[in-house]
C-alpha cells in the first residue's frame, strides 16, 4: 500500500507590514455565489471604502505558514478588475504573480475577479511541493474553501474586520470555526481581521457532523465522503478518547473554546492507495483523505493526524515569536524555534498516550526507537535552528523536525525531571511560558533561549541548548534512557536487568 502523509501547521495573528490608516472605516466586504461556478471558476467581489493612500498593492499570498515552498495563489486569479466610486474601471498594473498595483487607490470602491480551483478530487496524483490542503476545490456538491486562495488583501491593511457573504445551494452546510450566521440560501462569515479569515477553512457539503464536548472546548467533526455515506459519527467516537486524553494531559488548559475537524474523503473503487494531507489552523484542521471506504482505515488515519494537529492549539497558537505573529505572506521571515512548534508538539503526541494510560510503555518505547533509527537518514551537521531559519532551502531535511525535534525534547524532559527530582518537565515549562506570553503576546526569537533558561532555573539547560538545539552534537538518547533504566540495543529499547530505585523513580516521574 502507498501511504504518504503531509502535516502542516498554520497560525496567523497580525501583520508586520506598514499600517497606513487602520481606522474602523475600513471593512472588507466579500461576496461570492457558489451556485455559479463556471469552468471551475468562482467569481468573487470585494466592496471596500476608507482607503486613503494614493497607491496601494492588492495581493494573494505567495506562501502561508507551515508550507515551506511557494504556492503562489495569485496564479489562480483571472479577470481582475477594480472600480472607482463612480463605477468606472480603474487602471491596474500586475507587479508579479500574486500582486496588482493600483494608483489613485483612495478612489477604490470595489474589486472583482475569478478564482480557479486548484484540484478536483483528492487522489494519488501528486505534484512535488504542492499541498492540496492549502488550496481550494469546487465540485457539484462539495466545496473546500481555503480563504487565502479566494480572498486577497491590501498590503498595509490586514488588521481590519472582514465579512464574507456566500450564496449557496439549498441543503448544504458550512463547517468552519469562523463566526457565522446561516440562512437557507446565504451564509455570512465574520473575522476580526484578514489573518483570522485565512486561518479558517470552510467545507460546504451536505451535513455530516458530530460534536464532541470536552472540558472548556466544543469539537465538531465535519465530513464529506464521495461515497455519499455518513462517516462523522464513527470518526468522532474513535477519536473522542484521544481528545479527552489530550485535554487531560494539558490539565484542560486549552487556549481555544471551539475546534473543527474538517474531513474530505475520496475513494476510488478497487484502489488500495492510502494518502492523506492535513493542514493545521488555530481552531481547526483540514484533512484530505484518499483511501478505501473502510471505516477502520479511515478512523486510524484520521486518528494519526488528529493526535498531532490538536496539540497545535498550544504551539504556535499560544506560544510563538514575532516572525509568526508578523507573518508576511509574500516575503516571510522564519522563526528558529521549530524545535518547539513542531518538535515539542510531536513529543507531546507520542508522550501523551503513555502518560494518560491510553497507550502502553512498550508502544511508546517502540515509537522512540523508530524515530531514532529514521533520524539517521538526515544530515547530522544541520542544526535544527538552522533548518528552522532556512526551511525553503532545506525542504529535503524538514521531516527531521518530527524525528530529531521530538527526541531532543524527550531528552530535555528527562533531564529537567532529573534536575527537579521529578517535579518539573517540558510540559511544565511550556505551560509556564504560555502563561507569560499567550496567543496575544509574541516572544523575541533571538532571546527566547535566555527566557527558557530563566524560567526553568537549571544551569544544564544552557548547555543542552548550545549542544543539541543550536549545535549539532549527537543527541544523548542512550544516556537519557540509561537514567530511567532502559538501554538502546540494536535499534530496540529494552529494560535493564536490574534498574536501581533511583532509575525507577525518575522513570515514574517521566512516564507517570
Question: What is the secondary structure topology, with strand pairs?
Answer:
Elements: E1 3-9, E2 28-38, E3 41-47, E4 55-59, E5 77-84, E6 92-94, E7 99-103, E8 108-116, E9 137-138, E10 143-145, H1 147-150, E11 153-154, E12 162-167, E13 173-175, E14 179-182, E15 186-191, H2 194-198, E16 202-205, E17 209-214, E18 217-225, H3 232-249, E19 258-266, E20 274-280, E21 284-290, H4 295-309, H5 322-325, H6 338-356, H7 361-374, H8 384-389, H9 404-419, H10 426-436, H11 448-456, H12 460-469, H13 477-483, E22 486-489, E23 492-495, H14 501-511
Parallel strand pairs: 1-20, 2-12, 18-19, 19-21
Antiparallel strand pairs: 2-3, 3-8, 4-7, 4-11, 5-8, 6-7, 9-10, 10-16, 12-15, 13-16, 14-15, 17-18, 20-21, 22-23
Helix pairs in contact: 3-4, 3-6, 6-7, 6-9, 9-12, 9-14
Overall pLDDT level: 91
CATH topology of the largest domain: Immunoglobulin-like
- How far apart lie the N and C ends? 36 Å
> Biggest sheet: strands side by side, in what order?
5-8-3-2-12-15-14
Which structural category fits the helices and strands?
Answer: alpha+beta
Shape: globular
Quaternary structure classification: single chain
Largest sheet, if any?
Answer: 7 strands, mixed
Extended strand count: 23
Q: If classified by CATH, what would the architecture of the largest domain be?
A: Sandwich
Radius of gyration: 24 Å
Proportion of strand residues: 25-35%
Which residue ranges are poorly predicted, with pLDDT under 50 across at least 5 consecutive positions?
Answer: 1-23
Tally of individual helices: 14
Helical proportion, percent range: 25-40%
The CATH C-level name of the largest domain is Mainly Beta
